[in-house]
Amino acid sequence: MVSSQWIQFNIEASPQKTEQIENAVLDAGAVSVTLQDAADQPILEPGVGETPLWDSCILTALFPASIDTSTTEQQIQANLSFSLCSSWQLVENKDWSQEWKKHFKPVACSDCRLWICPSWIEAPQPDAVNLRLDPGLAFGTGSHPTTMLCLNWLEKQTLQGKTLIDFGCGSGILGIAALLLGAEKVWAIDNDPQALLASRDNAQRNGIEDERLITLLPEEIPSEAKADIMVANILAKPLIDLAPQISKLTLNNGQLCLSGILSHQVDQVSAAYIEKFIFADSVIEDNWAQLAATKT
Q1: 267 and 169 part of one domain
Q2: Count of other CB atoms within 10 angstroms of residue 127
Q3: N or C: which end of the chain has fewer CB within 10 A?
């Protein structure tokens, strides 16, 4: 029999009850609490200031396996005014610091010229352009449709000698890909300092010098930062709000690539840029859209 150091208490809950349940399980000694969707209901773009939950949630509380589950459950229930639909489950012993890495595999872009390879996995095609990426637990590895749409677009551009701005750089994947494909310089911009740190780490992992990929907070953008190619993989609302700034940072005849947009938001986003850009047809994948345009 495999021993376990941990046991988890799984509780079905409506969003209105999750805070009460969370307080009750923490009072009973839970070392962590997580929430997940119980009905495959996506939350794609919350409003400003909103922290929405799914209509049906699973709250999971983690306890040491040595607890008396019956006594603990009674203590939790005593602090609530409603009955719980719940179950206990032993958690298999694993090295959780490494377990998450199993979910990430090398990803090829459209023509297999560019591969995104997690840093701990050998590149499937050593002769290809291989971007080595260590996303940590905060940023993705390029498999999301919005990122792949941008990477596929970048593969088709003439990047030699060009300067690129990656607005909302995350792990730095788009800017680093552009440099590996021939771009001369990238300004990587994000309002999250952890994203800038991840971008610098990933740039070093790919042998890219600091002067070729420059990381900045939005308020630090210098006057000389102008883009032959502008990419912004964010969400519709910030793309609309940032349209004046993104337009100003893009040189005349420069190329624009926008993503993070749901297919029904294409017209709304393109309308924010239409005075200064001529758009090509949008590209749709899994209900996500990528927009490409040329500045006039």
Answers
A1: yes
A2: 6
A3: N
